[in-house]
Write a structure and sequence with these properties.
The protein is built from eleven helices and no strands. With about 220 residues, the protein is an all-alpha fold.
C-alpha cells in the first residue's frame, strides 16, 4: 500500500490537473447548481457571465428533481458532489478531488480483498492503478469512482461474509453490508447493478471450499 497508493495518487492528480474539462463534468456542476442545462446566449457575452452558472449551488431536493425530469442517472453521486462543492470549492481540480479520494479508497479495498483471497496485493494494486480505465474514471467529476468504491466494498464484504461460518450472525451482517454497498453502487450508476449482482451471486452460490488460499 505504501508503494501503490502514492503512485496512484500521483497519476490521478496529474491527470486531474493537466486535462481539459468535459461537458459531462460541467453538467455535474450545473445539476448541483440548480440549472441542469443553462440557456447560453446567442449574442456576445462576457467571461463573468459564462462563469456564473458554474458557481451556483442547490440543495439535494432540487438536484433530485432536475435528475428526475431531465436525466436517467441516480442521485447519490450528485448529492455527494453538491456537499463536496460547499467544502472544497468550485475549481476543476477541487471538483475532481472527490473522485480521486473515492478511487484511492476503491484501490485500497481491492488490495485488501486480493490479500484476503490469497492473491498478490502488490500486483493487483499496480495493475489496477496503471490501467487507463482506472486513471480516467478515477479523476473525472462524474460518479464512476464512487460506484467503483461501492463495488469494491461490496466485494470485500462478500469475501469476508463467505469466510465466516454460513448462517452465523456475523456472516449475515457482513452479507447485509455487501448488499448495501452493492445497492449504493447502483444508486450511483445504474450500470453498477451488473457487477454488484455478480458479486452477490458469487456469495450465494460459491462452494464453501473455493478458493483454497484464503487468509
Amino acid at each position: 500500500m505504501a508503494l501503490v497508493l502514492p503512485v496512484a495518487a500521483g497519476l490521478l492528480l496529474a491527470a486531474a490537473a493537466f486535462r481539459s474539462a468535459e461537458y459531462d463534468e460541467s453538467y455535474s456542476i450545473f445539476v448541483t447548481g440548480g440549472i441542469a442545462r443553462p440557456d447560453w446566449s446567442s449574442a456576445v457575452f462576457t467571461p463573468a457571465e459564462a462563469a456564473a452558472p458554474f458557481r451556483l449551488h442547490a440543495g439535494p431536493l432540487t438536484t433530485a428533481q432536475l435528475l428526475r425530469s431531465t436525466d436517467v442517472h441516480p442521485p447519490l453521486y450528485f448529492w455527494a458532489l453538491g456537499l463536496w462543492r460547499r467544502l472544497a470549492g468550485d475549481g476543476a481540480l477541487a471538483l475532481r478531488g472527490l473522485s480521486i479520494l473515492c478511487a484511492l479508497g476503491a484501490l485500497l479495498a481491492w488490495m485488501v480483498a486480493a490479500w484476503r483471497a490469497g492473491l498478490p496485493p502488490l500486483v493487483v494494486g499496480l495493475v489496477t492503478a496503471l490501467a487507463y480505465g482506472f486513471a480516467y474514471t478515477g479523476q473525472i467529476a462524474r460518479g464512476f469512482a464512487l460506484a467503483h468504491l461501492m463495488i469494491a466494498l461490496c466485494a470485500l464484504a462478500a469475501l469476508a461474509a463467505w469466510r465466516r461460518e454460513r448462517g452465523g450472525r456475523r456472516a449475515t451482517g457482513l452479507a447485509a453490508l455487501a448488499g448495501l454497498a452493492g445497492g449504493l453502487a447502483a444508486f450511483t450508476n445504474y450500470l453498477a447493478v451488473f457487477p454488484a449482482a455478480a458479486v452477490l451471486a458469487w456469495l450465494a452460490f460459491a462452494p464453501p471450499t473455493w478458493p483454497a488460499r484464503l487468509r
